[in-house]
Amino acid sequence: MAVMTYLEAIRAGLRQEMQRDPRIVIWGEDVGVRGGVFRVTEGLQQEFGEDRVIDSPLAEGAIVGVAIGAAINGLRPIPEIQFGDFIFPAMNQIVEEAARMRYRSNNDFHVPLVIRAPIGGGIHGALYHSQSVEAFFAHVPGLKVVVPGTPYDAKGLLAAAIADEDPVLFFEHKAAYRSLRGEVPEERYLIPIGKADVKREGQDLSIITYSLMVSYALRAAEALAQEGISVEVLDLRTVRPLDRQAILETAKKTGKVLIVHEDNKTGGIGAEVSAILAEEVLFYLDAPIRRLCGPDVPAMPYSPPLEHAFMITPEKIAQAARELARF
Amino acid sequence: MTPELMKEIYYYMALSRAVDDRMWILNRQGKAPVVYSSNGHEAAQVGSAFALRRGEDWIAPYYRDLALVLAWGMTPREVMLHVLARAADPNSGGRQMPAHWGMRRLHILSGGSVVATQNAHATGIALASKMLKDGRVAVAYFGEGSTSQGEFHEALNFAAVWKLPVVFFNENNGYAISVPQRKQMAVVDVAAKAAGYGIPGVIVDGNDPVKVWEVTRAAAERARRGEGPTLIEAKTYRFVPHSSDDDDRAYRSREEVMEWKKRDPLVTFEQRLEAEGILSAEEKAAMAKQIRDLVNDATDYAEKAALPDPATLERYVYAE
Fold it and tell me: What 3-state DSSP class applies to A238?
């Protein structure tokens, strides 16, 4: 099986889907000739032509709004928002239009659309190239929000997102693009949206996380194993819908839960996961639920010491898990 | 334009006015919590509809477009089911406020309440049509207030760059609820904005359905030829408040309204058809009776129709 980076897996997935379905069209800022600022779409315009990989005007509202119309009239658009931070001009189209088209039309219309955007920090992106924006969209009925944490998951979830009949936000962690590698099958496979995955089995406590933090949590779990602490790592993979069953199962199994995400704490995915645990399995828990999250500051600063202070690291995760294990 | 087509356009203008008047009665009776009218805009809407391939081309209407959707093929019964929020409302199953049109079968795009979003949708529909070579034109309808929105600009720019088969049809009635055009923009004509996108901007008397038909036909033909979008500005007036919850006496003088009323498109077009011998007194009377019967039937039908079942509240958030 081929070893690919997270970025290569996404590109391979896009290419494979475009080869099998001529209705798939990509557009966004710089996605064509330049192949995207991160090169995710590199080579696709050469292969599929300027009609299917379109350098669009610099206007996120139109990038998504046009995709909604195109999806309704028979295409399967995959618009790219260059950075998650730039998605807010399209918020109106995503939340008010795409998310509720099916509901408001009583199932007469629907919007099969995949919006790709890189999220997260740790790459000197500062306040406007580092944000984690998934929680804003996870709040919205009608949307699905996918946050892959491995190359294998990225390709399989992308195929599932493209096959989905409803709008999907596909958030790629930009620090994962070239840092994560893994085995990725060449043939097409679909990973169901809404299914979490136990990435490491353990007994003493559970880390529930997603996106880049999955690999960080696995590194922390490996370190803690040396200390005799057995950590289970649950990768949510999708933050809307959440896999409630998987969340409850791991909590019941280990009795201790550490939720980790890079997004800031208040109103983040961890809050919803905590509420699910409190509602359903409170008396199975042997310790208070703990959250390790980005701080509640507007976004990640630029200067290295400030950026480092914001970022969650494997060491910070290991320390939080160690404390929880001792409780 | 043939006399037959003129009569058909007149029929839909009169039908719309009658359905419209009935909606207001239902509102004042407490049966319809809110209504939005196309009263005064009928010539612009029906004239443009008949310049297109009704039911085949796509329209992305806004809340002012009752006459448009009737001319496009929605029946008075279907309109009344929507106005009274019945389960069988084909626009939304009673989920949306009245005048939020949408019927996939007729290629009427479902609309929300945030204005100008439909300009981007029509652009996207046109992009798909161009790629799939289905020969369709998409037409977005919107008020002059919507032209202040960023998405108006974004959509026209996108469509112009890619020469998409889309027509942007502005119904300029001079007011965005209470705000007059002079506080909305510093230009006299919405059509002037087309220059910024390198596309034609056409001004037309929105109270003359024949002139509207002519310019819309030209714009649709241009779009179908692959020459790109056109911005049409149909200058018109709404004779009633923004909605049944509005009171336009707060922002418009009665003199101004009465001055425009002299150019009521339904009255002036009727006079023209009579003067030109196209519409006889008998035909007019027969049409009036047909319309009265249709509106009564639609009202009765919708009033008797079932309301939505609360058990359906959580359906159709996603594919089922």
Answer: strand
